[in-house]
Design brief:
Radius of gyration: 23 Å
CATH class of the largest domain: Mainly Alpha
CATH architecture of the largest domain: Up-down Bundle
CATH superfamily of the largest domain: MFS general substrate transporter like domains
Structural class: mainly alpha
Helix content: over 70%
CATH topology of the largest domain: Growth Hormone, Chain: A
Strand content: under 5%
Number of strands: 4
Largest sheet: 2 strands, antiparallel
Number of domains: 3
């Protein structure tokens, strides 16, 4: 931990903050682990409950929908209360959501699992919003960026751990076991991690900022940019009311109507619930003023749209990577998960390389190049043959699967680059609400994933015309065909095209007039 700014003896993490810093680092690893472990629940639930790909995508709709619904609430928690309160609330939501997995397992209820996933992911949304600025505050401002980068380095470590947990505890126990046993192994890693979350939660309950003043630094402070003038209970109550009204409407519709139609579809329900946070933003004068200012900036609102498509393609591509490899190479789900590990390692390595070269090249230009590479990789995934070219450690590789893996390399720098371009140069008075908008864009994972899943399970899609002559023989076990699984990668290609356009439109930083 003895890391210092070059040419200076100022520690990146002062001694008195190292314990709390390590606990926050554990939170970074925790949500990275859970994000990637959840991707593997889609093929797992599809097998366990015998449902369609578009139905199993309900896992991603619940997970990333929670991020969107609670993004503004998370920003409000940090601003109106404290970073510590945000961390405690996020961990509490996670523990509650994971505990719901137990009755869901006993009842063998897919819907109950979705409820647990939604609450769990809501906790992660609050946790992410709280931990990033909390880390920045633990020391001198001049080392804040390095401190946050150091903490974020543990996020992909957690991601890799999540993939291995899913591979060896969930996917490896699907074949040959009863439904009850399969669901038991789904619960094991999530419920087991409650112990980790509980230790961190208890630490923060007891934690008090050190009173020692021997180390004096200029600490970054929270600005009163989003203060509303309402009491804290009134503010929380108003937000919960804005959420409860559309939720109550949907519950009533589903109870009163034998066939609720469009209201019974998860994506439509989620979009309707999103009215609540937006209404909250419009009701509060300060929030409404900031929102109007943000919407006047094309760089920002187009950045939110682009982030929507980027997060959507990341989640969708990784969610359906397993099914693609199973179909093209004839592998089981647990073996196909190895390609996910390889893709994530490539993603991490490319992010490190891209971060280094951003010192020399314009980040927007680099993102445009990576988007072009990703689009080309999508084309290869759609059109190249699946004949095995070589084998490494018993793992076969074909031209189209290699392109599938390369998509992850193309995605590597996009999220932070879009984030930086959209928020770069914004006034501090609106940047927190702006950041909440970019978190809400994570909704893309809940929308794009089922769109791609609908093509995968389709027997008659308009996108099939893009791949003439491809084998349309239906695979009853995988609930797809070679034609449909290949055609589905037109969705990532469209998403990367949106990223490409944004990177070309906003290559230059904000000028004085835009600021």
């Amino acid at each position: 931990m003895s890391k210092y700014v070059k040419g200076d003896l100022t520690p990146v993490v002062p001694r008195r903050f190292r314990t709390v810093f390590f606990m926050l680092v554990a939170c970074f690893a925790l949500w990275g682990l859970l994000n990637n472990m959840t991707d593997n629940l889609v093929p797992a639930f599809e097998t366990i409950f015998g449902i369609k790909p578009s139905e199993s995508a309900g896992v991603q709709i619940s997970f990333y929908g929670a991020y969107a619904v609670l993004a503004i609430f998370a920003a409000m928690m940090v601003e109106e209360f404290s970073y510590k309160t945000g961390v405690l609330t996020g961990l509490g939501f996670y523990i509650l959501g994971a505990l719901i997995y137990i009755p869901a397992c006993v009842a063998q209820s897919f819907d109950l699992y979705l409820l647990g996933i939604f609450i769990l992911a809501g906790g992660l949304s609050i946790l992410e919003t709280s931990c990033n600025p909390y880390v920045l505050s633990l020391g001198p401002e001049k080392t804040a960026v390095r401190r946050l980068n150091f903490a974020q380095a543990f996020n992909p470590v957690g991601s890799l751990a999540g993939i291995f947990l899913a591979k060896y505890l969930i996917l490896a126990n699907l074949d040959g076991n009863s439904k009850a046993v399969q669901l038991f192994w789904v619960c094991v890693p999530y419920v087991g991690l409650i112990a980790v979350a509980a230790v961190i939660w208890l630490f923060f309950v007891r934690y008090k900022a050190p009173e020692d003043t021997s180390e004096q630094y200029e600490m970054p402070t929270q600005e009163d940019s989003m203060k509303t003038g309402l009491s804290k209970p009134a503010l929380i109550g108003l937000y919960l009311l804005c959420i409860a009204i559309p939720v109550g409407f949907l519950v009533a519709i589903n109870m009163l109507c034998d066939s609720p139609g469009i209201w019974g579809k998860m994506v439509c329900q989620l979009l309707f619930v999103m009215v609540g946070p937006l209404a909250f933003t419009l009701i509060i004068k300060n929030y409404r003023s900031m929102l109007c200012t943000l919407l006047k900036l094309p760089r920002y609102w187009m950045g939110v749209v682009t982030q929507f498509f980027y997060v959507g393609v990341q989640i969708a591509a990784w969610t359906w990577l397993n099914k693609y490899c199973c179909k093209q190479l004839g592998l089981s789900s647990d073996v196909a998960a190895t390609y996910y590990v390889i893709s994530l390692i490539l993603f991490i390595v490319c992010r490190w390389i891209a971060t280094y070269y951003m010192k020399k090249f314009n980040p927007a230009d680099m993102m445009a190049l990576f988007a072009i590479i990703a689009i080309a990789a999508c084309a290869g995934t759609m059109y190249l043959p699946s004949d095995v070219l070589f084998t490494i450690g018993g793992l076969p590789f074909s031209a189209n699967v290699i392109c599938l893996i390369l998509i992850s390399g193309g995605m590597s720098l996009m999220f932070p680059t879009i984030y930086g371009i959209a928020l770069g140069g914004l006034d501090n008075r609106i940047v927190k609400l702006g950041a909440a908008g970019l978190i809400m864009a994570i909704l893309g994972g809940a929308i794009i994933t089922p769109w791609m899943g609908a093509i995968i399970e389709s027997t008659e899609s308009c996108w099939f015309a893009l791949i003439p002559g491809c084998d349309a023989t239906w695979d009853a076990a995988l609930k797809t065909s070679d034609l449909s699984v290949r055609a589905s990668f037109i969705v990532p290609a469209i998403c990367f095209a949106v990223v490409l356009v944004y990177s070309l439109m906003f290559r230059k930083p904000l000028n004085k007039e835009e600021k």
